[in-house]
Amino acid sequence: MGRHSDASSAGTTLAELGALARRSLTRSATGSPAHRGAPARPRTSPAVLRASGAAAALALAVSGGAYAAVQVSASDVRPLTETRARLQAIGSTGEDGGTTSLAVSGGAVAVTTVTEDQVQAHTTVERQTDALLTGTSEVETAGVDGLTRVTYQVVTEDGVEVSREAVSSVVVTVPVEEVVLVGTGTDTQVALAAAGDGTTAASAQAAAQAMMASHGWDDAEFQCLVSLWQRESGWSYQAQNPSSGAYGIPQALPGSKMATVAADWATNPVTQITWGLQYIEGRYGSPCSAWAHSNSVGWY
Predict the structure, then answer these.
(1) Global pTM?
(2) Whose CB among 28, 186, 216, 283 lies 3.0–4.6 Å from 42's, allowing a Cys bridge?
């Protein structure tokens, strides 16, 4: 072919170059009439060679690009870790926080939120008291379990849970500690505790009666004691004789004598009663003897 043919071939499309190559190969295989008796030698024009080379280069480029794409795709396929799955799933979760699923090489991963109520067990403490007999106990404050509401982010794969992470925790009710009283008291101490604080005449008499047993005195002696101290102080722990200065339920003179029992003698009726019973036993032997002396001379 001449130069014009070369120029024309350069401007043809890839399809035209392919067609041109096929026609040239056909002519070369057939040969000219002058050479039909001799074996045909394939001839390829320079334009066809160039077209074929361009086509081959293009094919190689396309094949190479595809191969590179396959290589990149293969290297980019990594095992789906929990973190990747969670991030991908969370990224596509709607605003309503519902379940989000995505297909991952052989499995479906879903991220959901689950809320559970968890019981917080109450604790128990023991407190000793002489208001109860030794060896006994009772519940002073009943224990109550608390409740905590926990929300988890759960990741599942093919319906099987693979991870769970707490994202929020709210205390619904606080546990109430249980208090158990453990007795350490004697009969007298228990009776005293039941009698009251002694700040009224009735509670002071009940306290005195509770302590009578430790002195070996019966109810008759108690009645003598009630009469004796009613005359002396009206069973008032704050009673004070304006003339002599005698003080308290037993009218100790001076009142500070009762400090031999406890320093709170001026304000504690039980301290005063304790001192008064000791005084009566030591000086008269019994409340009825002290009452008889008081009736005789006006004091005891």
Answers:
(1) 0.52
(2) 28
Sheet with 146-157, edge to edge strand ranges? 100-104, 107-120, 146-157, 160-173
Q: Are 132 and 182 in contact (CB under 8 A)?
A: yes
Tell me the CA distances in angstroms from 229 to 189, 226, 252, 299, one per residue in order.
Answer: 22, 6, 11, 11
**Coil, helix or strand at residue 21:** helix
Residues facing residue 169 across a β-bridge: 150
Is 143 buried (19+), middle (13-18) or exposed (0-12) by CB count in 10 A? middle
Of 153, 168, 64, the closest CA to residue 114 belongs to 153
Average pLDDT of adjacent 10-residue blocks, the chain of 300 residues:
41 46 48 43 45 40 37 41 48 43 64 96 96 95 97 95 96 97 91 90 95 93 98 97 95 96 96 97 97 95
- DSSP for 136-179, written as a single string: -EEEEE--B-EEEEEEEEEEEETTEEEEEEEEEEEEEE--B-EE
SS3 (DSSP) at 225: helix
Inter-CA distances, 147 with 38, 114, 131, Å: 105, 16, 34
Sequence-ordered list of residues with C-beta below 8 angstroms from that of 148, at least 6 positions apart, any chain: 117, 118, 120, 169, 170, 171, 172
Half-sphere exposure of 157 (CA within 13 A, CB side): 13
H or E element, residue 61: helix 46-76
Tell me if residue 240 falls in helix, strand or coil: strand
CA dist 81 and 159 (Å) reads: 16
Question: DSSP of 87-138, one letter per residue?
Answer: HHHHHT--TT---EEEEETTEEEEEEEEEEEEEEPPPEEEEEEEEEETT-EE
